[in-house]
Design brief:
Mean pLDDT: 97
Strand content: 15-25%
Structural class: alpha/beta
Number of helices: 14
Shape: globular
Strand order of the largest sheet: 5-4-7-1-9-11-2-12
Helix content: 25-40%
């Protein structure tokens, strides 16, 4: 059995199956596959999430905490396990690892890695650095090509060529095809942008929730103050257009899979590394535990996969065990295959130890509840997603017993205070290795990773 793992970057779960977003190819994949409607990222930012997905372990176990601490291959990955088991493993497109290490791939095609030492300003968390590269998100919006969409077109063509090669029929393989879209800049190719009407998405600014850590995150990532109602509409239309552009790339790759006669022997997985807030609650990008940022699309389709929807919370870290199970490769037992029955009491976590937040943030999703722990004595948040899917009413003060019960469930998985302390210690050493706080503050700032990194 083969594996075709397709990954978007920054695609919110709400964009899949939405009346606002046209994704016909992904809709067809969902119709024949198993859709996980409560799937969560290990961390709502690219670099630590991609390390955790590779290793099948949460961020606090592997220590790749932030955008300046990328995966270096030192922790065993699902790619290592499959390759050691005789499966040809290939990456095509964005990895966002350190670069130059053995990650377990037999071959890497168009690997997009972390730029230089990574986003080093994000290491400066106590106190937070001054982040000055936030205006550009509101300025680079609308119709047109970007380096990212040009790169994605190359990824698609490379994936199609790779699938068409005769060697694909001769031995089992696992391909990780990874695009950058719909990650900002929020500029989409004109043919996709023209499908949307920006005026339909215009909106006034939303207030930032009254929480001390969220207030600091919003002040650091202060993208929203540069937006107007009109530009919010343009940016959202462009984001939806990028989702449609991404969907078209998925469609081309799936068509190539069928044309090569491989569809009947291949399990297809589609996911995103994290979501996008799009101005909700005053935030753009990710870096919060609200569902628009932390919940992700996830669907698995192919031979032996029963169609339907799983509403039980699951984690992207379980993909490693899933892939090892499909290929019957030895795995260390971490995680649960998503093709097995998911226990109704399954609980999942997400962590954030990156720029913009002075303290670690740890989220627990269990049943209909979402509990968010903010380290160093900051108040938690509690949401009943069944009654309040848009997370507008924080119940932590009104339901202290529920909050305490969920905190106990969280600490059975991770000690969030200990993880916060380890992350800050590791990051202090990383700052020293890079020349100290003053050296990092003087470096040029950027808002997204260049494709040529």
């Amino acid at each position: 059995m083969n594996i075709l793992f397709l990954m978007a970057d920054e695609m919110a779960a709400s964009a899949l199956g939405s009346a606002d977003v046209r994704t016909p190819n992904l809709d067809r994949l969902c119709a024949r596959g198993r859709v996980f409607s409560a799937a969560y990222t290990p961390s709502p930012i690219c670099v630590p999430t991609r390390a955790a997905i590779a290793c099948g372990r949460p961020v606090h176990e592997i220590g790749f905490w932030s955008s300046a601490e990328p995966y270096d291959g030192s922790v065993r990955s699902w790619m290592h396990a499959l390759r050691d088991g005789g499966v040809h493993t290939a990456s095509i497109g964005k990895l966002h690892y350190r670069g130059g290490d053995d990650y377990g791939f037999t071959e890497e095609i168009l690997p997009m890695q972390v730029a230089g030492d990574g986003w080093v300003q994000g290491l400066l968390r106590q106190p937070l650095a001054d982040y000055t590269a936030t205006r550009e998100m509101s300025e680079d919006i609308g119709a047109g090509l970007t380096d990212y969409t040009r790169f994605d077109l190359q990824v698609t063509q490379s994936a199609c060529n790779w699938l068409a090669a005769p060697a694909r029929a001769n031995a089992p393989w696992a391909a990780f095809v990874s695009w950058v879209s719909p990650h900002y800049p929020l500029r989409a190719p004109e043919e996709y942008f023209d499908l949307y009407h920006p005026e339909d998405f215009e909106a006034e600014a939303e207030p930032v929730p009254d929480h001390p850590v969220l207030t600091e995150i919003a002040a650091f990532f202060d993208h929203d103050r540069y937006f107007s109602p009109r530009s919010r509409g343009t940016a959202r239309a462009a984001y939806y257009a990028l989702c449609t552009f991404l969907d078209a790339q998925v469609g081309k790759v799936l068509k190539s899979l069928e044309a090569a006669g491989l569809a009947e022997d291949t399990v297809v997985v589609f996911a995103s590394d994290h979501g996008e807030m799009l101005g909700e609650k005053g935030f753009w990008g990710k870096s919060t535990m609200y569902d628009s940022s932390a919940r992700v699309p996830l669907v698995i389709a192919g031979p032996g996969v029963s169609a339907g929807t799983c509403e039980t919370p699951v984690a992207l870290t379980d993909l490693a065990a899933t892939f090892a199970g499909i290929c019957k490769a030895p795995w260390d037992g971490r995680g649960t295959s998503l093709l097995d029955p998911i226990p109704a009491e399954n609980a999942v976590i997400s962590e954030y130890h990156d720029g913009g937040s002075p303290v670690g943030i740890t989220m627990l999703r269990w049943r209909n509840w979402k509990y968010i722990h903010y380290a160093e004595g900051h108040p938690p948040q509690l949401f009943d997603l069944a009654e309040d899917p848009h997370e507008t009413t924080d119940l932590a003060a009104a339901r202290p017993n529920t909050a305490e019960d969920l905190h106990t469930r969280l600490t059975a998985i991770v000690d969030p205070e200990a993880a916060n302390a380890r992350a800050l210690r590791d990051q202090a050493r990383r700052i020293d290795d890079l020349g100290g706080r003053g050296a990092l503050e003087s470096l040029p700032q950027w808002n997204f990773t260049p494709t040529g990194a």
